[in-house]
Amino acid sequence: MPVLHNRISNKELKARMLAETQPRTTISFYKYFNILDPLAFRNSLYQQFTDLSVFGRVYIAKEGINAQISLPTHHLAAFKALLYSVDPALDNLRLNIALDDDGKSFWVLRMKVRDRVVADGIEDETFNPSRTGEYLKADQVNQMLDDPDTLFVDMRNHYEYEVGHFENAIEIPSDTFREQLPMAVEMLQDNKDKNIVMYCTGGIRCEKASAYMLHNGFKNVYHVEGGIIEYARKAREQGLPVRFIGKNFVFDERMGERISDQVIAHCHQCGASCDSHTNCKNEGCHLLFIQCQECATKFEGCCSEVCREEVRLPETEQRARRAGRENGAKIFNKSRHRLQDGLNSTSLQSVE
Ligand SMILES: [Zn+2]
Ligand SMILES: [Zn+2]
Question: Which residues does the annotated region (Disordered) include (predicted)?
Answer without folding.
Answer: 317-352
